[in-house]
Amino acid sequence: MAKDWMTFYYAEPQPERFVEEVRKLAALGVLATPERAFPAIVFLGAVIAQNGHRVQSWFDALLDLGAADLRALQDAAWLSRAPEAHAYLTAKGLTPTTGAQQAELLDMKVDPTVLDALWARYFATGDLRAVRKVVSALDHMTDFGAAKAYSSTAKTDADKARATRDAIFQAASWSLESLMREHAPLKDFCADLVRSGEMTANERCALAITLAKLEPAVWRVQIDPRSGTASITWSDTQPSTPHEKPWWKLW
After folding, report:
1. pLDDT digits (tens, 9 = 90+) for 185-237
2. Between 39 and which of 49, 116, 224, 244 could a Cys-Cys bridge form, CB atoms 3.0 to 4.6 Å apart?
C-alpha cells in the first residue's frame, strides 16, 4: 500500500516505486481531493527534491493521469524546488498554483491539514523540525475538553476557537503517541526535547504525559489539580531540585 511506502520512507528510501505509488494515490482519490492532497503533495515534493534527475522519466510515465492528479503532481514538483523539476515544468509551459509557489510548511499555522503534512515531511525526510512543529500544537493543552464541551456552550467565537484549539491539541497528542510507538528516532527526539526544557510549559508537560503512556517505568508527571502546578521526573537521570518540586503553573 502507498501508506507503507510513505510511512518509513526516510528510513528506507525506495524512489524506484514512485510511479507505482503515485498511481495508487490517484486511484484512491487522494491527489484529486484538495483537503487530502496537500500532505501527499508535501511528501512527493520531498521525494522529488531528493531525486531531481528522475523527474522527466517519472512525469512522462504519469502523463495519462487525470487533470486534477497531474495538477497535484506538478505542485509537488514546484514545492520540491529541485532545479530539474522546475526546468521540466517550465519547458512544458506549466506554472505553479499560488499555494505551491509560496508554501513553506514550517511557517504555517498548525491545523489538521498542516498537521498531516508535517508528518508527511517527517516520513519522507526524517526532518525533526517538522516534529518540533507538531509538538508546538501541544501548547493548546489548557484548552483540553473544550471540543467535547462545545455543544453545551453559548457557541461564541471564543468557544469555537477553544474547541478548535482542543481538537488540534488532541490530534497532535494522539499522532505523537501513535507514531512514537513505531519510530524509535521520533521517541528519542521527543524524550531529549522534554529533558532539554526548551519548550513552553504546556508543550513540555503534554509531551511528558505522552511519553509516560509509552514508558510508565521511565517517565512520571504529577499535576496538582488545585494549584495547577506540575512536575516531571524520569528514571534515567538524577532529578535536580526543579524536577523534584512543582515548577510551573498550567492554569
Report:
1. 999 999 999 999 899 999 999 999 999 999 999 999 998 877 778 889 998 65
2. 116
What b-and-e string marks burial along 79-99, b requiring 16 or more CB atoms within 10 Å of the CB?
A: bbebebbbebbeeeebebeee
DSSP per-residue string spanning 79-137? HHT-HHHHHHHHHTT----HHHHH--GGGSPP-HHHHHHHHHHHHHH--HHHHHHHHHG
Cα dihedral across residues 147, 122, 95, 65: positive or negative: negative
Residues 6+ apart with CB under 8 A from 53: 84
Read off the pLDDT band of 102 (50, 70, 90).
low
Mean local confidence (pLDDT), 44-54: 96
Residue 89 is predicted with a pLDDT of: 92
Considering 15-19, 149-153, 227-231, 235-239, the range whose residues carry the highest mean pLDDT is 15-19
* Amino acid sitting at position 7: T
Give me the residue spans of the domains in the chain: 2-107, 128-249
| The residue count for the chain | 251
Distance of CA 55 to the CA centre of its chain: 26
Q: Which residue has the higher pLDDT, 241 or 127?
A: 127
Q: Are 147 and 207 in contact (CB under 8 A)?
A: no
The closest alpha carbon to 213, from 181, 189, 251, 185, belongs to 181
| Cβ–Cβ < 8 Å for 115, 134 | yes
**Cell 532539554 appears where?**
196
